[in-house]
Amino acid sequence: MVILLSAFNGIEQMISKLYTSFDAPITIQHQSRKTFFLRQIDLEKLQQIQGVRAFSKELEELVVLRKNQRWINANMHAVDAEFIAQAKVKQHLINQVGIPFLNDAQYVFLGADIFSKLKLGLGSEQNDIQLYAPKRNLKMRLGKVPFHVQQMVAAGALNYNQELNNSALLWNYDAASLLFDQQNAVTRIHVYVDPQVDLIDIQTEIKKLVGAGFLVRTQLERNDLIYKTSRSERLVVFIILLFVFVLASFNLIATLTMLVHEKQANLQILKAVGMTQQNRFQVFFFEGLLLSFLGIALGLVLGLLICLGQQYFSWFIVPGANVPFPIEFKSKDLLSILLASSILAFLFTYFPVRYLLRKS
């Protein structure tokens, strides 16, 4: 239980870190429209909410990229300098290539998979690509070009997670809004908060500020499926391990049965010298509890030692990622394991001993 629950905690933490660096703690979007104007939100009051550290703008659009005869779809994230800093883009650039061009409107940054599929090279001078994006509110006429076309250079490759690596294109917000004729319009606003604040409290304050027309979500709500899946798997594993513990408890019942059977002669002597039925029950009951809690304590200690060994010595490596398998033990897991195993140990000791002594 200790090892498996710690492994699930580590996996959940690893997933959280992957999405934390790109996704802001809180995002604001319009309820019914893809984009909205910045003037619809009082940004000064947003900045003044206690716990809010900064905010950034993002314009998102589905685009098509072309390099020679290679075409590929991408999800463009046009962001400002604040986003570049908060999302730690520098740390996620492969080989740190392209850092000087992070806020340059002439350059874009592609997810690692897109970068590879377009056959581009890190630091190469031949990384020019063309971007095609559909024009808004365009009436189709003969001779009209239905796409915005922009020539640009891929300055580097991003490595965040599989989803972003396979779809993301990072570009300058001002350049993108000018190309799409959407100045002062955004798809979402990213809100960054102090580390120790309660996200729910700040989310409530932001909802009051922006009104019912906007969707205000925390990072957990945006990636709700991932976290729910991880927690559901952990709960199922916990329940399965409890059943294993129940099966193992039959060994305890067998041990107590043999013990009572072997001590029949001693029990008769104890009866003769005046030991009551309650006293005899207590002897075998506490012996059963002693055996149970020794096993529980030994299991917890061994589990903790293995978890600490993995954290410090990295015995196991995640296949394909070449990183140590994440392990994180939480005190609430210790309490839940102790509580569940203690209740089962009590039940599988009390009733068998009561039954065995009644028959003896």
Description:
The chain is α+β, with helices and mostly antiparallel strands and 360 residues long. The protein has two domains: 26-218, no CATH class; 226-359, no CATH class. The protein has twelve helices and 13 strands. The chain has helices at residues 2-20, 43-48, 81-86, 112-117, 162-165, 173-179, 199-210, 219-222, 224-262, 264-272, 277-313, 331-359, and strands spanning 26-30, 36-37, 52-67, 70-79, 107-111, 128-134, 147-158, 168-172, 185-186, 188-193, 214-218, 317-318, 323-324. The strands form three sheets. A six-stranded mixed barrel has the order 3-4-8-5-7-6. The protein has a two-stranded antiparallel ribbon with strand order 2-9. Strand 12 and strand 13 (323-324) form a beta hairpin.
Summarize the structure.
The chain has helices spanning 2-20, 43-48, 81-86, 112-117, 162-165, 173-179, 199-210, 219-222, 224-262, 264-272, 277-313, 331-359, and strands at residues 26-30, 36-37, 52-67, 70-79, 107-111, 128-134, 147-158, 168-172, 185-186, 188-193, 214-218, 317-318, 323-324. The strands form three sheets. Strands 3-4-8-5-7-6 form a six-stranded mixed barrel. It has a two-stranded antiparallel ribbon with strand order 2-9. A two-stranded antiparallel ribbon has the order 12-13. 49% of the residues lie in helices and 22% in strands.
